[in-house]
């Protein structure tokens, strides 16, 4: 079996698992909350459905010896999701909440995952690799509304896509996610015009997966091409290209240039930094950071529960910082610390908080403006105590 770069980063995470204390929360976030608020825009909710949550996970992910199955079992072990008397889904919510409270983040956007739909707009469970229902997202977020905001998932291929969009907006969501390569969605298909126009009318921010996917079965990798976002952008939507069109060195085609080209033409296009702290993405993260326009449009996202690999960035941040950050037990904080060492952490998390309109969630009026964020605004990460050499 070949060990891929992202898998190496995962194995690194799994190796430190025995070192994790009972409570994963180490640092206190209190001092950060007094400063300008910061958001992690990309945190996954996962489940196998064992607690009546309605979540589903395909056997190709949970069983067998594929890289994805090994990754899933490793995460279950590393995050200690198996505990007597509790379902995996219940434990995941507990662990996620502990991590978030100890991360220093003000809030995190909690992501759902819609199903694949057939040509009649009905769920196709055979082709759905994992599913996190929007009601589960809303229920979890309601229990932790001080630190979470909802990011449901709406596949525009579903027959009731417009109704689900209205329902999610009504329930307070101001952003939602589409995952084209795993949900089999062509966001450039003209049949979605009405859906995207409605998104623009409601001022919903759309998170769309772009770039190469390695953690879930892909239906068609071409659907992840950033150029496909053009159609939604032309309808006036604000779009976040998750992972900013990145991939591993070995992935073809190279989709990052498409993202960079679109940025120039569309001021309402953003990119998130989810999964960019893993070993396989060092090259593309470096390319993004070297591009001034891209740098000014990046929004902080971790892609929790997938752990980052600070040691892979030793050349960029120095050995001492890489080792110090690598020892951080809180995975969300470790991700933010790594990105802050790359000088894109806090500034992109403040920007994410503003773009996600966190202050308007829960029916608060448009007079409650989010803080004004300029690309240049930056500040030292408040939890850093040891100066970097
Ligand atoms: Zn993700």
What can you see in these coordinates?
- The chain has 389 residues and is an alpha/beta fold.
- It has a single domain, classed as Metal-dependent hydrolases (TIM Barrel, Alpha-Beta Barrel).
- Helix content is 37%, strand content 10%.
- It contains 17 helices and ten strands.
- The protein has helices at residues 5-16, 30-33, 59-62, 67-78, 88-101, 134-143, 161-170, 180-183, 193-202, 230-234, 256-265, 282-289, 292-296, 314-317, 319-326, 331-341, 345-355; strands at residues 39-44, 56-57, 107-111, 130-131, 148-151, 175-178, 205-209, 238-242, 269-272, 298-299.
- The protein has a five-stranded parallel sheet with strand order 6-7-8-9-10. Strands 1-3-5 form a three-stranded parallel sheet.
- Helix 15 (319-326) packs antiparallel against helix 16.
- The longest helix is centred in the first third of the chain and has 14 residues, at 88-101.
- The protein is globular.
- It starts with a helix and ends in a 34-residue tail after the last helix.
- The site of zinc ion has 4 residues, from strand 1.
Briefly characterize the structure:
The chain is α/β, with parallel strands linked by helices and 389 residues long. It contains 17 helices and ten strands.
What are the salient characteristics of this protein?
389 residues, alpha/beta, TIM Barrel, five-stranded parallel sheet, 17 helices, 10% strand, globular, binds zinc ion
């Amino acid at each position: 079996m070949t060990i891929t770069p992202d898998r190496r980063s995962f194995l690194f995470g799994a190796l430190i698992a025995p070192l994790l204390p009972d409570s994963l929360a180490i640092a206190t976030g209190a001092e950060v909350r007094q400063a300008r608020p910061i958001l992690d825009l990309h945190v996954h909710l996962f489940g196998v459905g064992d607690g009546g949550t309605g979540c589903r996970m395909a056997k190709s992910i949970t069983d067998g010896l594929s890289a994805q199955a090994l990754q899933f079992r490793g995460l279950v072990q590393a995050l200690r999701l198996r505990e007597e008397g509790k379902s995996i889904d219940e434990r995941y919510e507990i662990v996620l909440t502990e991590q978030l409270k100890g991360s220093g983040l003000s809030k995190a956007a909690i992501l759902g995952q819609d199903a694949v739909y057939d040509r009649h707009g009905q769920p196709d469970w055979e082709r759905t690799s994992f599913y996190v229902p929007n009601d589960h997202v809303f229920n979890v977020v309601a229990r932790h509304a001080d630190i979470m905001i909802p990011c449901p998932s709406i596949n525009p291929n579903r027959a009731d896509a417009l109704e689900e969009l209205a329902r999610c907006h009504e329930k307070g969501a101001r952003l939602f996610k589409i995952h084209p390569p795993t949900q089999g969605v062509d966001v450039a298909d003209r049949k979605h015009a009405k859906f995207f126009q409605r998104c623009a009318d409601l001022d919903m921010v759309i998170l769309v997966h772009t770039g190469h996917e390695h953690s879930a079965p892909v239906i068609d990798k071409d659907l992840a091409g950033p150029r496909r976002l053009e159609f939604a952008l032309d309808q006036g939507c604000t779009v976040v290209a998750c992972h900013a069109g990145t991939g591993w060195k070995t992935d073809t085609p190279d989709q990052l240039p498409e993202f960079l080209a679109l940025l120039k033409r569309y001021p309402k296009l953003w990119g998130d930094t989810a999964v960019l702290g893993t070993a396989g993405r060092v090259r593309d993260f470096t390319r993004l950071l070297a591009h001034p326009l891209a740098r000014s449009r990046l929004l902080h996202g971790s892609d929790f529960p997938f752990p980052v690999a600070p040691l892979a960035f030793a050349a960029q941040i120095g050995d001492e910082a890489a080792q110090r950050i690598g020892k951080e037990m809180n995975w969300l904080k470790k991700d933010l610390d790594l990105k802050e060492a790359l000088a894109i952490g806090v500034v992109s998390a403040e920007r994410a908080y503003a773009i996600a309109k966190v202050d308007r969630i829960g029916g608060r009026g448009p007079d409650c403006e989010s803080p004004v964020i300029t690309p240049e605004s930056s500040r030292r990460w408040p939890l850093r105590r040891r100066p970097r050499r």
